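User: structure tokens for this one?
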Amino acid sequence: MPLKTIKKDTADAQTLEWVLQVQTYKLALDKNRCVGCQICSLACPKEAIKIQKEPKKQGEKTKKAKIDIDLAKCNFCGICDLTCPYGAMKFTLNGNHFLSVVEKKSFPQLVRGIQTNPKKYTPNKTRSEKPCPLNLITITASSSDTQSVDSGSVVKIEVDKDHCPCCKVCEVTLPEGVMQVRKFINGKITINADKCPEGCTDCLDVCPITGALFLSDDGRKVQANEAFCVYCGACKAVCPVAEALELKRTLIRHTPVRSGAWNKALERLTSPVEMTKELKTKSSLKARESVKKRVGLKEEQHA
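Assistant:
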């Protein structure tokens, strides 16, 4: 048991600590990066993370849902750190970023497929580019003339991959070929127009990805753009009508792992159908590897 437990809650962060004789476990939630989505609460095996919808004041936009971590339930496993699409959670041991569930191979890491090609970037002095809705991309160009950037400049593109949810907005915003992004969470989002309250923009107010949700031409209903949606569930967390917005996660790209803990988390994060598909794929691969080993053994015996 820890010698001391600490929980602090400020406007910018929530931190939890276990203080032992020679070790200090710390979990920190960056409220500025957190979008109030559903991922961490679904992934948590101890149900220590709760999502609470904030009350809406008349005349103001809807606020993102509030995340609260129960110190009495949290076992500092770091799974919320691993699964947060926005990198808002960070687990440290004695001040160092450390994830025991990865070391023990009981949990995978999400695979963010992000590639850049600076040679494809053509600066445009008349265009004000904001390639990333979360300001995670920095483009710099060295030039002999510091007041201008021309096609002869050496371009450098830096991406904060640890906090990137892979929305693919940059692919569309920047010149073709500059960015290649593969989503690590695939899914399906459907807005039921019959049940979506007319004039309601709660989901649109909290969506962190520009263009993932938008108003119809008549401005009466919210619609979804699958191309940019990262299926985090921030919209679902604040929707006032349960069946107005349906969100399913159908695929999560991750490093290889054989783990009951991950299978249980996957079951909570995705639909039962997709969970079954992944498990069947794993069983098929396992059977294939077993056949290969048997064939190899027979070949050795006959050699």
